[in-house]
Amino acid sequence: MTSSPAAVVVSAPSKDKATDRDQEYFEQALTQHLDWFAERGRPIRFWWRDDDAVSPTPELDELIGFSERFDVPLSLAVIPKFATETLAQRLTSTHTVQVLHHGWQHKNYQDKSRGEKASEFGWRRTALEMEKELLEGKEVLQSLFAERYVPLFVPPWNRIAPRAVQLLQQQGDYGLSAFTWINHFRLPRLQSHVDIIKWKKNERFIGWNAARKRLDLQLCRRQTNASEPIGLLTHHLDHGEGCSEFLEAFFKITSAHPAAVWLSSQELLEEAKRDFSQSSGQV
Ligand SMILES: [Zn+2]
């Protein structure tokens, strides 16, 4: 009987050297930016929005873990129609999580065959339908999450028609959060700016280089407007490889740096409302 050849030892796949280098470069670039603001005594404000929560999952637990470990407030955009009691129970033990209003059931009503972009609160729906869903959604979230609920409306797919903005305005205390630099004039706003997922094909982390460039752009803009918060956008159910590593590194640097301040959506919405009421009437 012949002896079998010695087993070839294959080490577990690890991050390749290029990824390590990219991460290092990202961390250096971010730190340099923050140092620039620290030297001038102008802190940069960050906030964190995570979308599509309905029930507790291991992926959500990981984000709640980051939030508590680094003391970074987490604003969860919850879909009212599918929000569960178990999610409400899961959040009762956290001190850093708030809940935002994410549409009604995350359903698209626009016509994709005509090339229209997905939207739940878009122009194809009547005001009556949308108003009913807005009121019902608010009621559900308030009764499930009580004081954790923050009246910040996050339209699914980050798109909202002017008619729906008007409905929010009529309800009095709403702010609006989407993903754009364009600010609606009708409502106080709190935008998100850096989405860490590459959505085309299969969802995954955008990569260290893309993350560096996106943050670079936002931080350069803050050199002339340091007061506008930078919104980090995540989607815990769609995080592929690389997202956890990025979030850990990003929170590690920003939570320890004197020029970076993490704020809750509640605090920032209050501020946005004050700014809004002061500037309304001005062109
Ligand atoms: Zn969504």
Roughly what percent helix?
40-55%
Oligomeric state: single chain
- What is the radius of gyration computed over CA atoms, rounded to a whole number of angstroms? 21 Å
CATH top level label? Alpha Beta
User: What would you give as the CATH superfamily?
Assistant: Glycoside hydrolase/deacetylase
Anisotropy-based shape: globular
Mean pLDDT across every amino acid position: 91
Q: In what range is the share of β-strand residues? A: 5-15%
Q: How many angstroms separate the termini?
A: 91 Å
- The ordered string of helix (H) and strand (E) elements is HEHEHEHEHEEEEHEHEH
Number of strands: 10
At the fold tier of CATH, the topology name is TIM Barrel
Q: What's the domain count?
A: 1
Major sheet: 8 strands, parallel
Molecules bound to protein: zinc ion
Structural class per helix/strand content?
alpha/beta
Uncertain runs with pLDDT below 50, 5 residues or more? none
Number of discrete helical segments: 8
The CATH architecture category equals: Alpha-Beta Barrel
Protein name: Nodulation protein B
InterPro entries: CE4_u4-like, Glyco_hydro/deAcase_b/a-brl
Organism: Pseudovibrio denitrificans
